Amino acid sequence: MEKGIAFRFLFFGLVATALAFFGVVSYVRAVTAPTGVGATALSACAAKVTWVQNSPPANPRYDAARNDSGTSVGIVYQGVITSVEVADPLTLSFTDPNPPNSSPQYWSGPLNPGTTHTYHVRIFDQQSGELSAWVGPATVTTNALPPAPGAPSISGVDTANLGTINVSWSANTVSSLFNQYGKFVVRRAISADNGASFGSFSQAGPLLPSSNTFYNDMVFSNDAGGYLTNSYKYEVYAREVGGQGCDPQNAQQTIDSPPSLTVVVPVRPAGLAAAFTPEPDRKISLVWQNRAVNATRLEIRRSLGTSFNPATAFVVTNGLPPDASSYDDSSINPGVQTYTYSIRACTATACSFFSDVASVMTGVVVPANVAAGIMNINLNPGAANYNTADVYLTWEGDVISKYVYTIQRAADGGAPADIASLTETQFFNLNHLYKDSVALNHGYSYRIKAQAPDGLSDYSNMATISVDIRYKITGVAWSASAQAVPPQDTISPTVAITAPADGATVSGLVQISVDASDNVGVTGLQFKIGAVNLGSAIANEPYSANWDTSGVPNVGRRFGCRPK
């Protein structure tokens, strides 16, 4: 046996190496080519290619090439099998077309319905670098497209939702292939002249799966030029896609023009405004610009609060004449409420979109919880506001409505008179607070009412405060030792003895009773028998005391009382 010979040659990526060492020559065998290459149609647009690999290498890669009617397309698939997946024999397959964006990808586009394709397969050993010859051919013809589906029938429209026309239909196709892969196409044409003429049909939205039999067309309002595009024509096509891998845009579509449905949506009213009229009429008056061409009736809805939800709004009326431009709503609740209104025009089959909203408050909120307090006493003789007090008023109001508040003051039980008129923007720190400067030694009462464009509120509760305070000043100038003293009372109290009667003869235990009164107030009363106190002073009514006459000589006695 020859020895010491080593040789190596390379041909189109096929590598063979022979080594001779110590009289032994070994050869690396060529990679085994695939066998049993076959192809079957999966649909009108896809095919499946299969093959078997005996004695696969540890790290193989498979290539598949396609010819279409004698024209070479080239490699349409490359697949890598890891060593973990390797089995012997190994059955492999791929689907043509390989999905786009796959890894690795060889996207050649969908196959055409009813066309013939030829495939070859080879293996590449990524470890040794050996590449087999192409094996094949496997020939397959894709399925033909099914017949075009029947045209769907539009069953109706619904314009209840703001800015949306809901189109619904029933299908005219029941094949299992259509149910799995079929699509619906909704097309729309628009008229800007109340349905006199329409533009061309165009696709209204995305392709819809066969399970859909409705479409919500978001047609938003467009008031340019004073009118809303108000007539729409719809048609629905069905597309028989043809199964797996087929492009819905190139599928078999409804052949005949499907029946269309024209929806005349009246132009929505504009310029809605609302105003409140208080008692005795108590109503909300609505006015608007009527643009309801083709309408047969008008509908008004309202919501409580400052927002409007057409789905939950209360239907005030749905039978106004189509040419109406005003309405009085007397069905409002008592008390102060905020209502938000909208109006739309309707025909027998459809309604316009709701108009812009108008909000109004029924009445004026009465100021609440009015309170008064002394914040400062001005006792500096050198100051301009000497001998005055600062009274601060606070209350609760409606900041949103920007009311004008009128404040009235009464002194010492007199008639109230206006002292201030303030808007929301004039309040300190945007709170409902007002400072009033008043003279000392008087009692004051305050009340407030609110005014809005639609009326006046009732007066608030009356807040009272007494600033009847006297001060004793020590020395000629102001002293920090000033202290409050009660005001001097120049009117004497009055007393009337009610029992026993004047000149009566008494014995035993006698009850003495009196009535006492004073312009300022009685703080106490002391009974006396002569110059001697009878018991302690009595602070509160009834003013009475018991006199034990036993042991008292039978002579006339003078008794009396002294109020404080």
Major sheet summary line: 6 strands, antiparallel
Compute the separation of the termini in Å: 153 Å
Name given to the CATH architecture of the largest domain = Sandwich
Helix content: under 10%
Overall number of domains: 5
InterPro entries: FN3_sf (IPR036116), Ig-like_fold (IPR013783)
Protein name: Metallophosphoesterase
Give the structure's gist in a few sentences.
With 564 residues, the protein is an all-beta fold. It has 5 domains: 35-141, Immunoglobulin-like (Sandwich); 150-264, Immunoglobulin-like (Sandwich), CATH 2.60.40.10; 271-361, Immunoglobulins (Immunoglobulin-like), CATH 2.60.40.10; 368-484, Sandwich (Immunoglobulin-like); 494-563, Immunoglobulin-like.
Outline the secondary-structure elements:
Blueprint: E1 7-11, E2 14-21, E3 24-27, E4 35-41, E5 47-53, E6 60-68, E7 71-80, E8 90-96, E9 116-125, E10 135-141, E11 150-158, E12 164-172, H1 176-181, E13 183-191, E14 202-203, E15 208-209, E16 214-218, E17 231-240, E18 252-253, E19 261-264, E20 270-277, E21 283-289, E22 297-304, E23 314-320, E24 326-329, E25 338-346, E26 358-361, E27 368-378, E28 388-396, E29 404-411, E30 417-423, E31 433-439, E32 443-452, E33 455-456, E34 463-466, E35 470-472, E36 483-485, E37 494-499, E38 509-517, E39 525-529, E40 532-533, E41 543-548, E42 559-563
